[in-house]
Write a structure and sequence with these properties.
Shape: globular
Structural class: alpha/beta
Number of helices: 14
Helix content: 40-55%
Distance between the termini: 45 Å
Number of strands: 7
Order of helices and strands: HEHEHEHEHHHHHHHHEHEHE
Strand order of the largest sheet: 3-2-1-4-5-7-6
Radius of gyration: 21 Å
Strand content: 5-15%
Length: about 300
């Protein structure tokens, strides 16, 4: 199967994981197995668990990781990694990578319905199961649609778009990406319609709702952090501000020390830092990578190391 995907911030991620040849690592979003392959190359007696909820990604990861006996490919969402690892009698790991971007394959394959630039059935399901974008667009109330577009897409014309979706679907169900994109564009004033990608924010919002991405991310980060060994690394790539805000806040909480007022003679809160930041500011793609991979433009990499208990 063709699965075109250029791994974003590849060198930076591998360096950030600080891989030990005998360590245990999880790639929670294996995608095209680009990051996973580089992790596996560096292991001798260690192990790699490459997870993904997308059946297409799993098929490709199995093929590309076949040469590495230390790699195990598993179809699941990364938020379930604790239960998956327990099946292999593993309770702690030395590093976890989460690349939260939608893969090039998912965007470019018309039948998946992620892109507003390809006419396709409204789907957007990463796992290819469960509620679809078509279900949301055609059954959610106007108020629910407006909230999704505003909360997850920060779309300032959310109310107008939601109203027009409800009006159009009353005439006939909205079935395709182009039908939805046209409703979005006609809901905007002329100046906004001239934007390069006027549908981008709305499609992002609906995709996040379909896959419950923000809830999954919050849960998955907590699970990942608890799985880390002392000195284990959590490496996360985000692609939009909503994801990055969640990651940044979680990292800050785990790194927070004493919260007592500065005039207290001694600490009474018993709050101590559980981790340290490896990079204070997010790592961004280099000029060379930006030129070679347009999807790296919005990527932000944050790295955390768990402290000794």
């Amino acid at each position: 199967m063709e699965f075109a995907h250029i791994s974003v911030l590849l060198k930076e991620c591998i360096k950030g994981l600080n891989i030990k040849p005998d360590g245990i690592y999880v790639d929670g979003t294996a995608g095209g197995a680009g990051h996973s392959s580089e992790i596996a190359k560096r292991l001798t007696t260690g192990r790699l668990f490459a997870l993904d909820q997308d059946p297409d990604a799993i098929a490709v990861a199995n093929e590309r990781l076949a040469p590495f006996e230390q790699a195990q490919v598993i179809q699941t969402n990364f938020s379930a990694m604790k239960d998956v690892l327990l099946e292999y009698h593993i309770k702690q790991v030395d590093g976890i990578l989460l690349d939260l971007g939608v893969s090039s394959h998912q965007l470019d394959k018309g039948s998946r319905g992620f892109s507003y630039q390809v006419d396709a059935p409204l789907d957007m399901r990463m796992s290819q199961s469960g509620i679809s974008a078509e279900d949301i667009v055609n059954t959610y109330s106007q108020e629910q649609l407006s909230r999704i577009l505003w909360d997850y897409g920060e779309e300032k014309f959310a109310r107008k778009i939601a109203a027009n979706i409800v009006r159009k679907r009353a005439q006939k169900p909205i079935k395709t990406t182009f039908e939805l994109a046209e409703i979005i564009k006609t809901s905007m004033p002329a100046a906004s319609r001239r934007e390069k990608n006027p549908s981008k924010r709305s499609f992002q919002a609906i995709r996040i709702a379909v896959n419950e991405e923000l809830d999954v991310l919050s849960t998955g980060l907590d699970v990942a952090f608890e799985l880390l060994n002392p000195k284990g690394r959590l490496v996360v790539i985000t692609f939009h501000s909503l994801e990055d805000r969640i990651v940044k806040q979680k990292f800050a909480r785990w790194c927070q020390g004493c919260t007592c007022p500065p005039d207290f003679p001694k600490c009474v809160c018993n709050h101590y830092p559980r981790a340290k930041l490896i990079n204070r500011k997010p790592i961004l793609a280099s000029e060379e990578e930006l030129n070679n991979n347009k999807r790296s433009h919005s990527a932000k990499l944050r790295i955390l190391e768990k402290l000794d208990a």
